[in-house]
Design a protein that fits this description.
Cytochrome Bc1 Complex, Chain D, domain 2, single chain, binds heme C, 6% strand, 5 helices, two-stranded antiparallel sheet, mainly alpha, 143 residues
Length: 143
């Protein structure tokens, strides 16, 4: 076999590998992973099952719901549980202090790693969910 006949399949294999890997590691997922590690992981662990009790969110139904739900939880937090009894202090999930782009990225990442689902979420989706949620809150709470 000539050297160039052997080289061709190797080059094709390298090409497929490199393009495959770059699709898998899109910039949005990189950023999502970064935000998750920096911020979410301390409470939920690296796979969402880390931590116990309320922090274990691996079996929540949110993973089967519309991606709007995860956006809402990340952007506005979750009320959690009254852990101090009579004082009424709730300890829950704080709203993520990130931009819409980062909220989109980390939501996609959480859906993928914790929910085992591939979803598309853009910064525009995040700002729309935020806007609608606040309108809805006002309708309900300003009565
Ligand atoms: C300070 C700790 C803390 C951090 C940081 C945190 N969470 Fe949470 N999270 C919680 C707690 C506590 C709950 C449970 C609240 C409840 O059930 O009301 C929760 C609930 C959730 C839920 C389930 C909500 C539902 O409706 O079932 C999801 C999804 C979630 N977190 C994702 C994230 C993601 C993604 C991040 C990072 C952007 C994050 N959390 C950061 C504490 C945290």
């Amino acid at each position: 076999m000539k050297w160039n006949t052997a080289l061709f399949p190797i080059l094709v294999a390298i090409f497929v590998l490199v393009t495959g890997l770059s699709i898998e590691k899109s910039p949005q997922n990189d950023r999502g992973e970064e935000v998750y590690r920096q911020y979410c992981q301390r409470c939920h662990g690296s796979d969402g099952a880390g931590g116990k009790g309320l922090f274990n969110i691996s079996e929540r139904k949110i993973w089967q719901q519309s991606p709007r739900e995860i956006i809402r939880v990340v952007a506005f937090g979750a009320s959690g549980r009254n852990v101090y009894g009579k004082t009424g202090l709730r300890v829950g999930m704080p709203p993520a202090p990130y931009t819409d782009i980062d909220i989109a990225a980390v939501s996609v990442y959480a859906m993928k790693v914790l929910g085992k689902r591939d979803v598309k979420i853009s910064a525009d989706d995040v700002s729309e969910v935020k806007r609608k949620h606040v309108t809805e809150l006002r309708k309900r709470l300003e009565k």
